[in-house]
Structures are given as C-alpha cells and as structure tokens.
Amino acid sequence: xxxKIVVISVVLGLMAAGSVLATPSFPVAQLSTPxxxxxxxxxxxxxxxxxxxxGPAVDPGSGKIVEGYAIIHYKKGYGKPPWAGGGxxxxxxxxxxxxxxxxxxxxxxxxxVNPANIRGLDExxxxxxxxxxxxxxxxxxxxxxxxxxSSTFDILLADIVSPDNKNExxxxxxxxSGAIAVTIIWGIFGGPPxxxxxxxxxxxxxxxxxxxSSSGEAGKMDFENIATHExxxxxxxxxxxxxxxxEETMYGYADxxxxxxxxxxxxxxxxxxxxx
Length: 276
What we know:
- The strands form 3 sheets. Strands 1, 2, 3, 4, 5, 8, 9, 10, 11, 12 and 15 form an 11-stranded mixed β-sheet that branches. This protein has a two-stranded antiparallel sheet with strand order 6-7.
- It is globular and about 45 Å long.
- The N and C termini lie far apart (43 Å).
- The protein has 3 helices and 15 strands.
- By secondary structure, the protein is an alpha/beta fold.
- A hairpin with an 8-residue loop joins β11 and β12.
C-alpha cells in the first residue's frame, strides 16, 4: 500500500502549567501505513517531545473548529521534557493538571477497540479491562464520561488529520524510542473555559517494541497500568513530571512490571473531581 504521509507540527513547550496548548514550531513528523501495520514516525528533533500538535480541523459532528494533540507515554528514562519538575504552587506540590482548564466531555459517546495484538493478551480481557479502567475515572468524577465500548476486528486508524466521530483503540508500532502508548485528543482548548470541550479520543499501544501482561509480570508492560493512565488523558487530564507526583496515575513515565498506576491516587481523584 502506498504510504500515507501527513505533516504535523510539534509542540516544544507548554503554554502554561497543566495545559497541552503551546506555541508550535514546525519540525516534521510522519504517519505511515505500509499494509495494515501503522507506524508513528517522529523526527529526531521531536523524538522525545511528549506532546505533538496536530493542528486545527473541523469536527464533523458539530461543525466546530477543533484542535488535535498526540500525547506520548514514555518508558522511564526516556523523553524527559525541559519543564520536568514543575507543578508546584504556594509551597505545595499540585499532583494533577488539565489538558486545558474546562476542556472536558460535554456529551457521552461510544468507543471501539480492536483487541488484536502480537503479544498474546486475551482479547476479552482488553475490552473488559478498558471498561473497568474507565469506570475508575467515572466513579471518581461521579459522572458518565466516556460511555460504553465494544470490540471490532475492523482495521482502526488513529486520526491525526481531523476527527471522524469514532473513539478508537488498537495495537500497532510506535516508532519513537521509549514510547509505550499514544493518546490522541481532539477538542476546543482555547477561549472561555465554559466553552471548551473534548470531542474525540484515539489510543495506540505499542506491541512491537513492548511485551504486555495482564498481571504485572516483570519485563512486560502491564496493560491495566498503562491503559488507566492513557484514559486519564481521554477524560481531560495532563501528564505530571514532578518526581513528588510519581505515585499518581498521571505521572508521565512508566516501567516494566509497574502496577501502581492501576488505581487512582489522591491527586488523580482531586483533578478529575475538579474537572467534572
């Protein structure tokens, strides 16, 4: 299949603490799709940037102009951003942050997952675990946020050009050193907070560079540990890079055999409660 290449701009820094909005520069990234294997390819200058701006697009559901961001979850020891260690205020560490203040789901949508993977994860487990992980965030927020999911074996493709009214989850290759998973979020992140909203989310889990486990095995990425974190982005929370917040589900790095992100920590609960 002819490779489909899309030029996207890369965010080099955050506009403000707890926000993915930033002043972009323009190194190039590519998404190629040889056959059915999808690979996110990042340029050397942006290989360890945790946030990539996908630019503006029209939301087909509402006709509104929205923005897209790809948020990369790195293995511990990779991708240390220049602003790591921030997030403190008034003498205390604030262990939560938002993609943008007020940017949240205002309608409930369904989502789909293609559970096919090359690492032997049970397909029923993947759907059931994603559902349970969403429940953690929704229970903490006392709100129905992401809706009901279902499985499919259709080929899914994360939307880096514009949203397509589908919230999609699947396994593929992510060609960026240390990248475990990517969550793509489309929404309105600027203007009055009361008018900001999220309109779509997609997730890709790398089963080429990483082996996966359903039980916290050493030498493997625990799916529940990573998925709970990724779903935090899907509901509107940002990464944390302050080492004082390393026990939070939204801490920006993960490692083999890690399971502490399976359950929400105090900062995670405060953050989702304040947002919803």
